[in-house]
Amino acid sequence: MIRVTLIGTGEISKEMAITINQLPDDIILYGVVSRKAETGAEFAQKYKIEKVFTSLEDVVYDNQTDLAYIGTPHTAHFPQSKYFLENKISVLCEKPICVNAKELEELLIIAHENETLLVDATWPRYMPFVKTVKELPIKHNLGKLLNVHASLGIQKQDVDRMVNPNLAGGSLLDVGIYPITVACMFNDTQVTSIKALSKDTELGVDQSVVILLEFTDGMLATLQSSIGSIMSDISTLSYENGLIELHGIPKVEKAIVKDSGHEVLEEINFDYITGYEYEVYETVDAIENDQLKVKSMTHSESLRVLNIMDEVRRQIDLQYPFEKEV
Ligand SMILES: NC(=O)c1ccc[n+]([C@@H]2O[C@H](COP(=O)([O-])OP(=O)(O)OC[C@H]3O[C@@H](n4cnc5c(N)ncnc54)[C@H](OP(=O)(O)O)[C@@H]3O)[C@@H](O)[C@H]2O)c1
To answer: pTM (2 decimals)?
Structure first.
């Protein structure tokens, strides 16, 4: 039996509560942490949660939580993950797992020293479409992957968390991580070149960002994100002899394979509970089997993504206030 405590009562914690309540009975939605007792109590009542905590210390003192799920703003991921790891409670942390690679490097040392599981919750990584799509090029003789084109845009500039530099706002860390994930999921070679341009909001974080990546094997990726406008959520993987469209990143609901003449060769649909269930299954499986890592998202892969985002931010001159103090 694995008891999960959710940290935060926002949008993603709601999704996770809905998800866990539909999973097998041995995964229990045990606790929730809110900075305000009333908010926590309301959330707990709605999602049938036994314990309400108002601090991380109370979770540790209670000593019943097996897994802390961190669904708070980006800037809280590092200190909250660190606290739980130091107290030997496994962590499933929302994306981006940290604000920058330096934070993650420190967290990985703490996870290692405490022999405690740290999992990056970037959700598409765990979904079954990844394995299916990786098999399609051979099945349809598509040849080598040459180009990836992916974008994600939402209109969310009215949400403080999205634009506040003190909370590591901006499109890159919130939604840009998904197009980067698409490129990295289908190419294991090193990124050899990164180019980036951005348009900023009034508060100085990136409203939109355009990224070009080149990989060691020659693959190119054109990636885009925005919090100022919606964008196509169809990603394209272009091969020597055709392409694969992924519809719905981050939650890919359909893959379409086309030949070089744009004729459809195959269309595959994917069904989910919410889409967040796979990261939970894999994390729970790791805890139950005393594993300190999960297969679908390795720590080196999390670092690869954060290193790309660090370089993009260097090029678009986006340093957060708390980074400048260091
Ligand atoms: N929304 C999504 O679809 C989605 C999807 C995937 C990943 N994520 C990731 O999940 C994280 C949270 O996103 P969200 O959309 O759920 O945000 P949100 O709606 O703003 O919720 C975050 C929650 O964290 C708590 N919180 C707020 N400020 C805090 C602070 N300074 N320190 C500690 N806790 C604080 C609040 O809960 P209390 O008031 O109860 O303390 C708040 O409700 C982000 O890192 C995001 O990238 C979101």
So the answer is: 0.97
